[in-house]
Amino acid sequence: MSITDIRPSPIAGTWYSGDAETLRRQIGGYIDQAGLPKLEGEVVALVAPHAGYAYSGPTAGYAFRAVLGNAYDLVAVISPFHRYHPDSLLTSAHEAYQTPLGTVPIDREALGALNDHLEANIGQALTPVSKDGEHSLEIELPFLQYALEGDFKLLPVMISAGELATVEELGKGLAEVLRQRKALLVASTDLSHFHAEKAANELDQEMLKRIAALSPEGMVKAQQTGKGEACGIMAVIAVMVAAKALDTTSAQVLHYSTSGQTSGDYHQVVGYGAAVFLKG
Fold first, then answer.
1. pTM metric for this prediction
2. Structural domain boundaries in the chain
3. Quick one: pLDDT at residue 217?
């Protein structure tokens, strides 16, 4: 059955190349240049940045190198939603996402199961949105299309706002839906925004330390006290909760960079980190 309701990409050709062959070469270069340490277990989830590829692509390459050649039936990508929306948990109203590398179908059965969990436990479900302009979820898709073996379906969730308890319940629901599937979780986040390089490094290393410790409470405390920043903190927490419920026992930070290394402007930078959550 052909897919007719496809979300058009608002960022292909700007945030990343709109030409399929150029995009493949670009992503392949980032992944080929990523020298990973030994991973102490099986990858359950990734943390990857979501800026334009010219800025965050080299760091994203480390995250997706960790799953290069792997095959999954389902990939759950959890991201922030940067524009205002009155509801806190969102998803796509479309049947698929479009990128220059092809279409990624959305798993409506998995979304339905996640909705059932959320309605039963917190009395709310995911709100579907059409033709959204959110970049932070889509930006991960070409990397997944390049890195993974075979086709996969997508479980997309965007977090507009939310209490910690709501986001933790989202994580529990994700674990419940993914437990019997060959599945991967991806948390989309950048780190600190618009600080000088030295200050950004301090803020970002503190947040990455909390991520490596698998500590949602530590992440929240770092953000609340101004010791660390992550624009997708709630997405990372949801994925962390899900990954821990799926037997994750450790995390490894794979790479860190800032936009200054690309732009040459070290006065106001954005931080990017790549990490994996592992079991076994």
1. 0.97
2. 6-279
3. 95
Spell out the residues 6+ positions from residue 39 whose beta carbon is closer than 8 angstroms to its own.
66, 252, 276, 278
Q: Which of 243, 271, 211, 255 is closest to 65 using CA atoms? A: 255
Q: Return the CATH fold of 6-279.
A: Protocatechuate 4,5-dioxygenase; Chain B (3.40.830)
Q: Please report the pLDDT score of residue 84 as a whole number.
A: 85
Q: How many helices (H) and strands (E) does the chain have?
A: 10, 12
Residue with tokens 């292909």: 12
Gyration radius of the chain's alpha carbons: 17
Q: Please give the Cα distance from 70 to 72 (Å, whole number).
A: 7
Q: What pLDDT shows up at residue 163?
A: 85
The alpha-helical segments, DSSP class H, found in the chain are 20-32, 53-65, 108-122, 135-138, 141-147, 164-178, 197-212, 216-224, 233-245, 260-263
Angle, helices 233-245 vs 164-178, to 10°: value is 40
Segments in the chain below pLDDT 70: 1-2
Please choose, from the candidates 135, 130, 153, the residue with its C-alpha nearest in 3D space to the C-alpha of residue 7: 130
- SS3 of 181, please? coil
What confidence score (pLDDT) does residue 46 get? 98
